[in-house]
Amino acid sequence: MSLAARRPDTPAPAERCVPGFDDLERGWLRNRSGVKWHRVDPTVLPSWVADMDYPIPTVVADALHHVIAAGDLGYPDWPDGSPLRPIFAQRMASRYGWHASASRVREQTDLIQCLQLILHLATSPGEAVAVQTPNYPPFLATLKTMQRPAVHVPMVDTDDGWRMDMAALSDDVARRGCKVLLLVNPHNPTGRVLTRDELNEIAAIARRHDLLVISDEIHSELTYSPNEHIPFASLSPDAAARTVTITSATKAFNLAGLRCTVTHYGPDRLLAIRDAQPPDLYGTVSNLSVVGTRAAWLEADAWQKDLITVLDRNRRRVHDVLHHHVPALRHRLPEATYLTWIDTGQPQAVDGPAQHVLRHGGVLLDGGEAFGPRAGAYLRLNFATSADVLEEILDGVVAALAPLRKC
């Protein structure tokens, strides 16, 4: 029996259905070639990698179809950089009051490439990088591969929710001689959105220790009211001058496969070093990726508004189900993203909590081990799917983890 049948406060399917988001056909999902659904066994429900299950915005699909139908796939005419540069600047100003300079924007294929390029240009092997943990595993893997020692700044689960350990940041930056702070805000995986006071405290530490701040803000447009995203570079002239902001339309519009990210360079010297590199050494974005991103940022806000409504409903559903059916778990309602971070309290479970849920619940979640120290007891759940699929995911998670209530 499903959770929907067990709980009288669950809305009827017709009442909760949002067309385009809740009418997903299982066969369509299973036939997708993306890693999220393609990699799992047909008996398993995927709720792991950070892809949404929804179709892309119609305006984005139409823009891509138009280019292909017109055969317009020749070399693009972008003598001053792609058209995304002024569009990004305009979007930052209208959404956040941050007057970013279009002339400081550069394009890369994805966020990981952005990070790797910046670290390559701004640091040397052996130089330490401060980073919140838990954190996005490819970021941590990048630091290890590039031999930039990670200085772990804990995100702490307090009575008031997740908080960044500011004292540890200040002390460890000084003790380890960090050159860079990798700041993820909104935070993946906890879903925390840092407040202006917190960001100002971080900015003061960065100024005191002369840190380059690499600010990953890719989840900024997936922030739930009343929380507010504040670009780090918008805090002050000093913050702007030391911050490299990396972001993309890929998370907020479900376009990861287009491979298009923008980077805003605050430091003059770093931008000059970047522009002195051979122009194609680090690759260039495709015409289609720019067309898709442009359509998303200029024409898909109505779609995104519906998306936020659905995700807000889903995050609350996950929180309510876990609270009522597995009260032994520790879980915070995420303030942003479509990912939620679950403390099972069971790091010693056979093969880890993720394998336990897969074996006993038929649901694939991300296990916490790759997210950094002290994360082995955690699970990351992706709730960007239809109401019906989410119910089945929660059925499996509850079936696997409900015995924890007895612990």
TrEMBL record:
GO terms for molecular function: cysteine-S-conjugate beta-lyase activity; pyridoxal phosphate binding; transaminase activity. Residues 112-395 form the Aminotransferase class I/classII large domain. Its cofactor is pyridoxal 5'-phosphate. Pfam families: Aminotran_1_2 (PF00155). SUPFAM superfamilies: PLP-dependent transferases. Its EC number is 4.4.1.13. InterPro entries: Aminotransferase_I/II_large (IPR004839), Class-II_PLP-Dep_Aminotrans (IPR051798), PyrdxlP-dep_Trfase (IPR015424), PyrdxlP-dep_Trfase_major (IPR015421), PyrdxlP-dep_Trfase_small (IPR015422). Gene3D superfamilies: Aspartate Aminotransferase, domain 1, Type I PLP-dependent aspartate aminotransferase-like (Major domain). Keywords: Aminotransferase, Lyase, Pyridoxal phosphate, Transferase. Belongs to the class-II pyridoxal-phosphate-dependent aminotransferase family. MalY/PatB cystathionine beta-lyase subfamily. This is cysteine-S-conjugate beta-lyase.
